[in-house]
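Hey, I was hoping to borrow your eyes for a little while. No rush at all, and the record is pasted right below.
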Amino acid sequence: MLWGFLSSRQTCYDGGCFPISYEISGIVRDGVSLLPLANVTVNSGWDIVTTDEQGYYLIDGFYGDVLTLSLSGYENLQSEPITGSTTSFDLYMFDLCYGASCPPGQICYDGGCFPISYEISGIVRDGVSLLPLANVTVNSGWDIVTTDEQGYYNYGFYDVLTLSLSGYENLQSEQLPEVQPL
């Protein structure tokens, strides 16, 4: 005679009760572009896999488990519970900036708003002789760099540049236009 507790997560046969397990598969896509997402971590609580280049995954799970999906730059996602009738899940993940609204001059990255950054380089020259000017201070308010002997500078900045050199009038750049990310 068999005694014991039978839960909805078990099936019994041949005198024993066993967890109901399934192979669950599907494709994970970006919730806006609908393009497949590669390298998404899919966790069933029992098994962990990563999606391939086409967003496809195949994972083992048990009745009632919930799949947890994670990918850097995207909101974590949880599926509906696994049942016998739902072993194929096509899931849609949204990037952390989906629906975000940042103030002018800032851009959303990983769910936060940050100043727009530019990489700028060039040569500072005398306005009359056009000779390169060494030791010009280039200042954006965030950081300061100085031109080398050939007047060259390379600078990452966020807003407006101010250039100054003893004996010359200070020069301030116009504010760079806001650009949208690719």
About this structure: Residues 118-172 form a domain with the Immunoglobulin-like fold (CATH 2.60.40.1120). The radius of gyration is 29 Å. The chain has a mean pLDDT of 80. The first strand starts at residue 10 and ends at 13.
